[in-house]
Please model this.
Amino acid sequence: MNKVSEIIHQPTRLKIMAAMKALPGGEWIDFVRLRDIVSMTDGNFGAHVNTLADAGLLHIDKGFVGKRPRTRISLTPAGHIAFDFYLTELQAILTGFGNQKSFIGPKLTSS
Amino acid sequence: MKVDFEQARAALESAAATRHRSAQLRSYALASPYLLLWGAIWVLAFGLCQWQPERSGLIWMVFDVIGVALGLVIVLRRPGRRKSNVVGVRYVGICASLCLFFWAAFFILRPVHSEQIAAFISLTVAMIYLVGGLVLGKWRIVVTGAILAFIMLFGYVFFQNHFFSWMSIVGGGVLLGAGFWLKRV
Model:
């Protein structure tokens, strides 16, 4: 499994990516709402979101609604591709093709 | 990292379940404002009808126009601007189709009195939620439709003299409650 897929493969991060993938192209979702969908606590959830953002898979937007801080998250185009590829890798494992060394995935940077 | 067959299968199942849950809750969150809007309209319009029953037709005409207009505003403010214009056209089309349906139905079924009109329209709305929820697999919408149909029939049979008050408080309350329920994860 390539490095980006390994980042996604962690159970909570997998759920985050799957939840984001269900939203139509580039749609933003509230941090709190996403956390509730994934059923996570704040501290752990924030760390996983940051890990995915550092890998270039998520956008994080921190702003305010009036005086209340609001954090929104969206899936980057690279995140879309990476998640689709990750699912392809898993499917390949189920069909018996996933253990070949020549299986190469996309390289993504954190920029 | 090596991932075995069982781990891959479990990961795919987790991804599919989470995607389904996310899509489902997104649909509910998009539907919630309409239920809140029409819940408020039912509370106000039916309340006024109980107070001025001879003007119930005019009252509902005004509130229907307000409801459709505000509903259109909700549609146009949805995320995804380009798509929201298409949804806006569909929304107006659906409202116009329902108006024509009700006009035709009451023309065929005439003479009808105002409580019958209110009951028929409320029942139709409840059935749209129930059947629509079944078709789309949205169980919270199904439950909303079923409860709405039940309380409408209950009120029509047992509280016909106070039917408008019943629909204002209980019917409007069900729609408002459903609107808040759909907002929650």
In short: The interface with chain A takes residues 1-5, 8-9, 11-12, 14-16, 18-23, 25-26, 29, 79-80, 83, 185 of chain B (CB under 8 Å). The mean pLDDT of chain B is 91. Residues 30-184 of chain B form one domain. The two ends of chain B are 34 Å apart (CA to CA).
